[in-house]
Amino acid sequence: MGLLDSFEKGLERAVNGAFAKTFRSGIQPVEIASAIRREADIKAAVVSRDRIIAPNSYVVRLSVDDHDRMRALGGALTDELHALLTAHATAQGYSFAGPLFIALESDEKVATGTVRVNSGTIEGRVSWQAVVDVDGRRHPITRARTVIGRGSDADITIGDAGSSRKHVEILWDGERAMMRDLGSTNGTKVNGEKVRESPLPTDTTITIGRTDLVFRVVPIAAENPSGVHR
């Protein structure tokens, strides 16, 4: 099995459950993975005998319909693309000039079933955004205190009868995050353990009732990266 086969089969296994239900037509997740991999290979540049630099910013442009279908996977797809491209770069001896950034965007000019990838290098222009993934939707954490619960006045509302109207709050200072239970009736679990408050490193699972919320810190471009090919 070649490296490309391994790369594609790895993504296929990672998203197989959602793939079977969501992607009966149009673009396939594995095609996005292959397109990003090809872009990295094409744009990789030898800068010295022991160093090959590949772009660290990838903007994947999809048709509106394909983009909507991919959004059903929430952050799972971009997380897998990130992990698989990192593994591919390691295998090929590539290095990145900064944190790896992969984003999916809709583009009315792109036909259904096709994918376009723009790549470039971001040096010192990546900021970090806290997000909460709930049932395939990603909610950015844009304030110092974010309340999550069943009530319509919560900042992030979840439709779970086991949650309180204001169940937990997430405190975020731009670098570190903490979860605090707001005296909920049924309590809150962090990574399966019932707690009143807890620090939140990236990829932490918060369970409220029967709902799992995943807290992540993800890179975002502060501005359009220089050298992006359009």
From TrEMBL:
Keyword Phosphoprotein: yes
Any one Pfam family match given in the protein's UniProt record, by short name: FhaA_N
InterPro entries for the chain: Cell_Proc_Reg/RNA_Proc (IPR050923), FHA_dom (IPR000253), FhaA_N (IPR022128), FhaA_N_sf (IPR042287), SMAD_FHA_dom_sf (IPR008984)
Keywords: Phosphoprotein
Ranges where the FHA domain occurs: 146-195
Leader sequence segment: none
Keyword Phosphoprotein: yes
Region (Disordered): 183-202
Domain of life according to the entry: Bacteria
Protein name as catalogued: FHA domain-containing protein
